[in-house]
Structures are given as structure tokens and as C-alpha cells.
Amino acid sequence: MKKRILVIDDEEIERVSIQAQLISEGYQVSTCPEVTCALKELGKDPDGYDIILCDIRMPGLDGYAFLEQIKSRFPSLTVIMMTAYGTIEGAVKSMRHGAYDYITKPFTIDELAVKLEHALEYRNKVQENIMLKEALQGRHQFADLVGQSKVMQEIFDKIQVVAPTNTTILLQGETGSGKEVIASAIHYNSPRKDKPLIKVSCAMLNKEVLESELFGHEAGSFTGAIKMKKGRFELANAGTLFLDEVDDIPYELQVKLLRVIEQKAFERVGGETAIQSDVRLIAASKYPLHELVKQGKFRDDLYYRLAVVTVNIPPLRERKEDIPLLVKHFVNKYRNEIRQETRDNTNDMQISDEVLRYLMDYDWPGNIRELENVIKHILTVNKTGQLKVGDLPESVIIPRLLDLKSQGTVKLSSVVDKVEREVIEWALQKAGGNQTKAAEILGIPRTTLREKLERLKPD
């Protein structure tokens, strides 16, 4: 694909000469005689040019003024300045205004070509970083990889290093901690991003079914195999294969998986023809595989093949500083979708500090997946736009009420009264103050609720 260059120079001879020489070098070149023309051109399609080549000395707006405007309006554009006044001061000023580099007139096409190649390499690196950031923020269907904690920043750094390679990666973390999201981020920031990302869960499948899923089968190879079927390794050719819950692969099938990794070839079940395998393998485990190796439940040779690079993903309870960011992210992700489903016209969603305290105090055994479901729940049940404690599911509220970790001794009746009072308050809030509805929520008669309210009144 040709690289597009925009040349801005008020001297027609210079402009036409540079254009002709760059076209002869394989570039696609457009020109403008002055800055206003260039700004209009870029306004039509700011992503349409790879490099801007701009003269410094021009009538009207000069190159420096152009740089200031371009960096405020199109900060990702890469600019090389041209000047017949090749001074250090000019170079420093160009850089200060945001230029990538500068070149002094007169120059040869070879000198310019070197500058352009370096600028293109720089631009490609910037674009890769932008793609990674977008991927991690969720513009390629993995929006849930969010975190500002130190451990998550370290994981982001590791992803950025390993994503462009073909290295096999092992992701280890509890269920719901984000392993699939990270696998997607790695794939979509690799050279294989335009090829298939095939996912398969190794859990809950017996040896025969999983073997067919991974490697495919020939027609008639077993009862029910009425036609040939391609397996996941074959479907993922030239792309990435994500093996989720690899810790559940039957021991006897681990040998065949190891052979595929080592020989980069396999046969379908019932087949004899070797099929070449060109896949980038990402495996995920909910248990530390080295512990399963010690227990004799996982082959050590397969473990070492899978764990070339290991990413350990912490549970949400160990990075609670990420919870406010995740809450904001999920609210933004689902509020419009849920409004459309419920025909709710609320303009904004606000989470009270009290709700956030409940979310921060909860230990999240289901990790990010559970938090996501809780946010979807409270967005669905709330109709006011102000998310309250009464909108939270019981699973989040009750553990906080029963939190006795910091207590030395307790009076049982006091604890029971406290829990009962707060659960009743929660039910009343959920019912909008209607005692009949609150009693229905609690599964008790209305008279019983009234008796409890009377008994639990503060002295």
C-alpha cells in the first residue's frame, strides 16, 4: 500500500519537484501552496496522510503557526519541516512546536527518503501504541480490561511487549478475572490481528469430544461422525487459538497437544494425513499449573511449552482500587443499552458514595464478571438515575452486614438486630417506602414487618 504524503510549500517549482521525485519513489503525494489550503485538506480526511512535509517560511501563516494548529486539531499527525535556513535555532523551534524532524533545503531525494522512512517507522509505532490503548480500553470488543492499579499497569506493559511476537502465553487467574479479555487484547495487537481468533473451553468436555473439537475428525471416524469436521487448530490457522481452562484437559489428551506444539502438525480424529498448524497459542488456567504438575495432574513437559511467558492476573479483591474505574466503565457501557430496552429516558446515572462503599467492601468471589453483572442489575432495576443501596442485589448487601472480621467479641442479639434493621431498610428503599411491597420482597406478612419496625425503632 502506498504511503500518502502532503507537501506544503508556497514555491511552485519546489512543490512540483518534490512531488514528482516522491511519486517516482512510490509515494502517493498531494500538495498545497499554503497553510489554509492544507488545513482544509486535512479537515476532510485527517487520517488520509502518513506524513506532512511543510515549509517553514511562507507568506501569511508560516510553518510554526501551522504546527501549532495541527498539533491541537490533529495531534497524531507526523510532521517534517523544510527550511532553507538550516540553523540549530530553527530545528529546536520546530521540535518545540511539535515537529517530528526537519530537513534543510536544498536536499537530495535520498536524504528526504531516509527522513521519511524514519518518520514512517515512528508513526507506525505510535499507531501500534494507540491500537493497544484502544484495545485495552475496549474498542475491539474487549472493553473490560480496565485498571489503574500497579499490578494491572504491569500487566499492560507485559502485553505490549509480548503481543507483537508469536510467543506462547499462559494466563493464570481465577474465573472471571479477565483472562479471555487479555487474550483478545494480545491477539488484536499482534501481526495476526486480521486472522481468526478461535476460542475453546477445555472444561466439561470428555476426552473424545474435546479431541474432536481441537483437531477435527474424518467422516465415519466414530458413531455420529457423518461428515468431516475441521477442528479449532485448523480453523485458527495463521491466527490465534485461545485454550481456556487448559487445566481441565484430560491427562491422556495432553500428549497429543504437546505433539502439535512441538511438531506444528496434527491429524484429524480417524485421519492419517498430517495437517500443518500455524497458530499462536494462548492458554488460560484457573489454577496455577505448576501446582497441578506437582500433583501429577498435568504434564510437566506440556506446562513448560505453554508457560513460555506467564501472566498472573490478580483477583478483584486484591486490586480494589480499580473498582471505581470499573464501575464507571460498566455504567457507561450498559446504560444506553438498558435504557433502550426499558424505554427509560434518564439522562445520567449517578452512583452514591454509600453504594460505592458497599461495592468496595465486597470481596467479589466472581471477580470482574460478577461486578459487571451487578452493575447491569442495578441499571436495570433503577428508574431514577440515582443508583442507591436498595438497587444492589442481596449477594452484595448481606456480606457487608455480617462482616465480623474486625470484631473481638460480639453480642449475638445486637448483630441480628443490626442485620434485620438494615435488610428491612433496604427492602423499604427498594419498595419506594411501600410496606406491603417491602413485605413481599422479604417474604413475610405485612403485619410481621410492622411488628419488626416497631421493635427495631431506636430508643
Which helices and strands occur, and which strands form pairs?
Elements: E1 4-8, H1 12-24, E2 28-32, H2 35-44, E3 51-55, H3 63-73, E4 78-83, H4 88-96, E5 101-104, H5 109-137, H6 150-162, E6 169-172, H7 179-188, E7 197-201, H8 207-215, H9 232-235, E8 240-244, H10 251-263, E9 265-266, E10 275-276, E11 280-285, H11 289-294, H12 300-306, E12 309-312, H13 323-342, E13 350-351, H14 353-361, H15 367-381, E14 386-387, H16 394-401, H17 412-430, H18 435-442, H19 446-455
Parallel strand pairs: 1-2, 1-3, 3-4, 4-5, 6-11, 6-12, 7-8, 8-11, 13-14
Antiparallel strand pairs: 9-10
Helix pairs in contact: 5-7, 13-15, 17-18, 18-19
Structural commentary:
This protein is an alpha/beta fold. The protein folds into 4 domains: 4-130, Response regulator (Rossmann fold, 3-Layer(aba) Sandwich); 150-314, P-loop containing nucleotide triphosphate hydrolases (Rossmann fold, 3-Layer(aba) Sandwich); 316-403, Helicase, Ruva Protein, domain 3 (Orthogonal Bundle); 410-459, Arc Repressor Mutant, subunit A (Orthogonal Bundle). It has 19 helices and 14 strands. It has helices spanning 12-24, 35-44, 63-73, 88-96, 109-137, 150-162, 179-188, 207-215, 232-235, 251-263, 289-294, 300-306, 323-342, 353-361, 367-381, 394-401, 412-430, 435-442, 446-455; strands at residues 4-8, 28-32, 51-55, 78-83, 101-104, 169-172, 197-201, 240-244, 265-266, 275-276, 280-285, 309-312, 350-351, 386-387. The strands form 4 sheets. The protein has a 5-stranded parallel β-sheet with strand order 2-1-3-4-5, sandwiched between helices. It has a 5-stranded parallel β-sheet with strand order 7-8-11-6-12. A two-stranded antiparallel sheet has the order 9-10. β9 and β10 (275-276) form a beta hairpin. α17 packs across α18 and α18 (435-442) packs across α19 (446-455). The longest helix has 29 residues, at 109-137. Mean pLDDT is 82; it is low at 138-144.
